[in-house]
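Duplicate of #3305? Posting structure anyway:
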């Protein structure tokens, strides 16, 4: 089933669930004499949680230490514990403990919520029929085979086969909103033999077995059969399909009660099998972080190696190696020099290890998680029609929204409303518009009018009233429709409702199905009844559906409707041409077209067809393949009646959105299963193609001219490539200031599914093995690409092909239907539209929005800001840690490479956790360097950050050199201050801890004020965290120095900070060094502002 997302690849564990299972209804043996086999199925408990109380600690720690940074810090911590290192194990142990603890608490809380939700479900009350009585039980106690009673508005506690309902015809209405988001009612059916069993007593008398497939995750697929045993013990077999299966999580609506037998329970229900997560997508920023980590790890190793080498160069002088006041012990003299060098190298690694920012991962995670709420809270994404806003299914890709290069969009329901209106039709080559005349039916616009036309007209309208899966739902209560009651049509396809309403407008009204009979009111207000014998359901491979019905006088007809490509090959050639002309004309007007055909079936032929259908419907293995073959045989030798044209209106602001995406430098491709003419018309309407765009076609029509299609395709590919390569240099040099890269002739490409198959699966001879590369060269140089007649898997192939291009462009797919799921999962970022084709796309996407127009703000504003914020966060983290460690490195040149720490252990520990963490978190959540309205109104600004611009080598080197400059200023500025023998009037000399504290004070103030300089959008939160962090540093230093907390008298920092601030020289030095450090930044800001102002003046002058 191509419509289902998870069936595209094998589900985990699916290979173990091969074969069938047998379920005894009510857990009763089918006869007293037969032995009752013990059944082993899982219980009905749902477990969505990841941890238990016992395994939480080991399992969570194992998962966290799989992260390379966490593991690195664990190794450093163990080195500090085992080797005599210059800093306490607390300095790396405490930050690591903090990171691990915060992450564990977050994951533990999330898992506790899952446990709580599981318990609510597992402990809910259900009623089981046991010994002809209703027995109250907890949901988790349900066993496979139990008969369960479900009342109106209750959810089904497990997957049930419907046995009977409160309605006389054994039907029930169900909503599956919690499963696939579809809020419309779906009708499910009981098999005819069990409809009458409507009480606990009667249902308990049922002796039956159900044979069905093992559990699998496809919500829309079920294969089974029920064997009902009567007193004679002769089993009557009836087929079971998805229409008989009630899924766990769905809700019973408009039906008093139902009885159903449990076939799948607990973790084997379809809902539970769909819990499995999608493949993990990683953003470009994450890859940049890893690259930067490697660079900084290299810097760390270099520093450690340089210091170790210079230490032994320094110690090559015997006086430096063993001064008279620090003689070596015997053990130290006997230690191997290589071992000593290795431990010294490890000690330097420990001393400089803070250059790797362990807390960055926690900050990035918090930024992504908290930042995602801004999308959910955005009122501009709220849609009053569906009463919903945007939804974030994964927060890991927020910044990727600001890096998109290619947008792949579906057409129907994404660019268009998927709100269908019947416009016109063609019957036997005569075109009719949508104007009614009282009883005479359709208003003819061309062709001769004869009595024959009237008969065919009625046949056509009957076909529209009968060939569909529309249900009629009365608006008062439910037990079937009455002619006088108010009613609405319900269907999973808006096309079908449009056609039924179209027929109603012309005098043929569908009145619903009652007891297997479809009722139609004709133009003469007479009620016609047709027995519905079989429905040959629509699927995306056949692209058609059929019904077999019997009239009141016993005649049997097959009515079929489907795409022209699916119907024309099955009707006589001479009937095609007149209708084909109208179909093509309607498609060019942008309408969706369907062809309608019929055939009369003789009783003998029907007996054969019925036997085949019953046989394949009872098959448990390969049922779908067998049914497809039988359907194919039945739907032959039909007669074409006509065609319909339905309008699908363009979505509000779809054209403006595509214009904005083009102006932002994004390439937009439309991938649709629709006809080329319809899709082309829509592309013009939504401005994907401009009026001046020259279209290059690679379609079945354009390559059919030649006997060997591959040769013709190769010719066209070469021709188009030459044309584009000749034009492209001209276009690129015209107007570099324009938002577009094309300013002269624009080109658009149109390709269909069958031609794409030829390109992707071309034979490997020398003339055709380069089809794909030529095709991609053409695509790259086209303004826009339209791919029509695409199967769902072909959509995914296109996305994969572009993803693998040189430079690995970032792709985004947006769609609303199940047929879009494959491309949504394939692309870097998947967007689901909460449309009218169900919610499969929204459920499988990374983000879901109500309308296509919301894509504009999502990318140009939210995506832009998310990227800028997180890029700044990453660069800032590496910058502030290099500022932190560089003075420590320089200090080694002045302390004989003795591994003496420059900073106190408390400062080392708290620098990343407390003193500098909150300002950058607030910045990364709230910063708006450009106003949101400006970002949406000026799409070109998006190009400024494309290609991961802020995390390229240039910006990285700028931040690194800035950190190196500032770190050097901190150290040598303080060093020159200490050239004076005394900093106080009383002649007291300061020590090494005062030296380190002055450097650290300048460091904390500089990196925090640097962030303040970068902030363009100030809120009270920014003010609070920036000035609050500086105040906290001062407070902590007084506290740690024993002034606020006298019990800290014994440690080495006692009164150091207070004494340091008592010197005027120190105050002046701190202020001066902060200014010198920030001066390049201030100068840069001033120059930028001057340039911006002069540009504005120049613009005004030109205007």
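Output from current build:
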């Amino acid at each position: 089933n191509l419509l289902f997302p998870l069936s595209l690849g094998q589900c985990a564990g699916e290979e173990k669930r091969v074969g069938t299972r047998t379920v005894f209804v009510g857990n009763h043996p089918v006869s007293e004499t037969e032995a009752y086999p013990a059944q082993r199925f899982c219980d009905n408990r749902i477990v969505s949680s990841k941890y238990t109380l016992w395994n939480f600690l080991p399992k969570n720690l194992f998962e966290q230490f799989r992260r390379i940074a966490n593991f690195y810090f664990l190794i450093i911590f163990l080195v500090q514990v085992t080797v005599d290192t210059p800093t306490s194990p607390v300095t790396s142990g405490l930050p690591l403990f903090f990171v691990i603890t915060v992450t564990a608490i977050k994951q533990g809380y999330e898992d506790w919520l899952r446990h709580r939700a599981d318990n609510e479900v597992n402990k809910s009350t259900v009623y089981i029929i046991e010994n002809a009585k209703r027995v109250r039980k907890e949901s988790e106690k349900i066993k496979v085979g139990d008969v369960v009673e479900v009342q109106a508005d209750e959810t089904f506690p497990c997957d049930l086969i419907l046995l009977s309902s409160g309605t006389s015809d054994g039907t029930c209405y169900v909503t599956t909103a919690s499963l696939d988001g579809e809020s419309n009612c779906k009708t499910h059916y009981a098999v005819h033999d069990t409809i009458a069993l409507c009480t606990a007593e009667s249902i308990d008398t049922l002796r039956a077995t159900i044979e069905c497939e093992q559990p699998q995750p496809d919500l829309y697929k079920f294969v089974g059969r029920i064997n009902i045993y009567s007193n004679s013990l002769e089993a009557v077999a009836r087929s079971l399909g998805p229409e008989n299966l009630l899924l766990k999580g769905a809700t019973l609506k408009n039906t008093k009660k139902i009885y159903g037998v449990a076939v799948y329970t607990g973790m084997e229900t379809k809902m539970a099998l769909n819990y499995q997560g999608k493949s993990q997508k990683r953003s470009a920023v994450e890859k940049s972080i890893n690259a930067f980590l490697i660079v900084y790890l290299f810097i760390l190793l270099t520093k450690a190696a340089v210091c170790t080498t210079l230490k032994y160069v320094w110690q090559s002088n015997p006086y430096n190696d063993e001064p008279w006041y620090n003689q070596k012990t015997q053990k130290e003299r006997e230690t191997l020099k290589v071992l000593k060098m290795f431990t010294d190298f490890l000690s330097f690694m420990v001393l400089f290890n803070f250059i790797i920012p362990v807390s960055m991962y926690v900050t990035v995670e918090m930024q992504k998680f908290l930042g995602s709420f801004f999308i959910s809270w955005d009122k501009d994404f709220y849609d009053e029609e569906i009463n919903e806003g945007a939804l974030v299914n994964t927060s890991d890709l927020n910044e990727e929204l600001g890096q998109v290069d290619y947008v792949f969009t579906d057409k129907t329901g994404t660019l268009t409303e998927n709100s269908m209106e019947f416009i016109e039709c063609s019957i036997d080559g005569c075109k009719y518009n949508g104007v009614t005349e009282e009883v005479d039916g359709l208003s003819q616009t061309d062709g001769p009018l004869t009595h024959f036309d009237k008969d065919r007209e009625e046949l056509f309208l009957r076909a529209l009233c009968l060939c569909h899966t529309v249900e009629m739902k009365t608006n008062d209560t439910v037990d079937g429709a009455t002619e006088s009651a108010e009613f609405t049509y319900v269907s999973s396809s808006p096309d079908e409702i449009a056609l039924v309403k179209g027929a109603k407008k012309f005098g043929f009204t569908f009145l619903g199905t009652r007891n297997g009979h479809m009722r139609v009111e004709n133009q003469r207000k007479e009620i016609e009844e047709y027995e519905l014998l079989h429905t040959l359901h629509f699927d995306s491979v056949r692209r058609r559906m059929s019904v077999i019905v019997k009239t009141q006088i016993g005649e049997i007809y097959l009515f079929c409707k489907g795409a022209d490509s699916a119907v024309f090959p099955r009707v006589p050639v001479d009937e095609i041409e007149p209708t084909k002309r109208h179909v093509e004309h309607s498609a060019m007007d942008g309408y969706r077209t369907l062809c309608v055909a019929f055939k009369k079936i003789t009783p003998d032929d029907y007996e054969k067809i019925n036997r085949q259908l019953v046989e394949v419907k009872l098959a448990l293995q390969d049922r779908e393949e067998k049914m497809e073959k039988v359907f194919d045989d039945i739907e032959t030798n039909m007669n074409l009646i006509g065609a319909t044209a339905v309008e699908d209106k363009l979505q509000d602001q779809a054209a403006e959105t595509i214009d904005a995406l083009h102006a932002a430098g994004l390439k937009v491709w439309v991938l649709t299963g629709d006809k080329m003419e319809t899709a082309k018309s829509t592309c013009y309407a939504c401005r994907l193609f401009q009026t001046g765009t020259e279209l290059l076609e690679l379609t079945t029509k354009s390559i059919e001219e030649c006997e060997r299609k591959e040769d013709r395709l190769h010719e066209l590919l070469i021709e188009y490539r030459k044309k584009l390569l000749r034009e492209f240099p001209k276009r690129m040099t015209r107007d570099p200031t324009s938002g577009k890269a094309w300013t002269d002739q624009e080109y658009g490409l149109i390709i269909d599914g069958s031609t794409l198959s030829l390109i992707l699966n071309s034979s490997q001879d020398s003339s055709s093995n380069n089809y794909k590369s030529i095709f991609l060269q053409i695509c790259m140089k086209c303004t826009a690409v339209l791919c029509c007649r695409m199967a769902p898997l072909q959509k995914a192939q296109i996305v994969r092909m572009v993803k693998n291009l040189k430079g690995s462009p970032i792709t985004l797919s947006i769609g609303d239907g199940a047929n879009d799921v494959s491309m949504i999962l394939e692309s870097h970022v998947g967007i689901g539209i909460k449309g009218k084709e169900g919610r499969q796309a929204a459920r499988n996407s990374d983000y879901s929005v109500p309308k296509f127009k919301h894509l504009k703000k999502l990318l140009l504003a939210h995506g832009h800001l998310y990227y800028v914020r997180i890029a700044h966060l990453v660069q800032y983290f590496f910058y502030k840690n290099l500022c932190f460690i560089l003075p420590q490195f320089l200090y080694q040149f002045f302390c004989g490479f003795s591994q003496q720490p420059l900073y106190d252990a408390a400062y080392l520990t708290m620098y990343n956790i407390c003193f500098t963490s909150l300002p950058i978190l607030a910045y990364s959540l709230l910063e708006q360097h450009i106003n949101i309205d400006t970002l949406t109104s000026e799409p070109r600004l998006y190009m400024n950050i494309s290609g991961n611009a802020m995390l390229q080598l240039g910006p990285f080197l700028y931040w690194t050199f800035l950190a190196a400059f500032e770190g050097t200023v901190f150290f040598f500025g303080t060093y020159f201050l200490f050239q004076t023998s005394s900093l106080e009037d009383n002649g007291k000399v300061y020590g090494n801890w005062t030296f380190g504290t002055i450097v650290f004070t300048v460091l904390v103030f500089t990196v925090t004020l640097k962030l303040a300089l970068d902030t363009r959008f100030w809120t009270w939160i920014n003010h609070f965290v920036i000035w609050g962090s500086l105040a906290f540093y001062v407070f902590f230093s007084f506290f740690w120095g024993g002034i606020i907390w006298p019990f800290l008298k014994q440690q080495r920092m006692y009164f150091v900070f207070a004494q340091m601030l008592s010197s005027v020289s120190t105050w002046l030095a701190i202020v001066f060094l902060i200014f010198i450090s920030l001066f390049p930044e201030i100068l840069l800001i001033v120059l930028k502002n001057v340039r911006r102002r002069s540009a504005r003046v120049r613009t005004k002058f030109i205007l």
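Confirmed duplicate; merging threads. The radius of gyration is 37 Å. The first strand starts at residue 20 and ends at 24.
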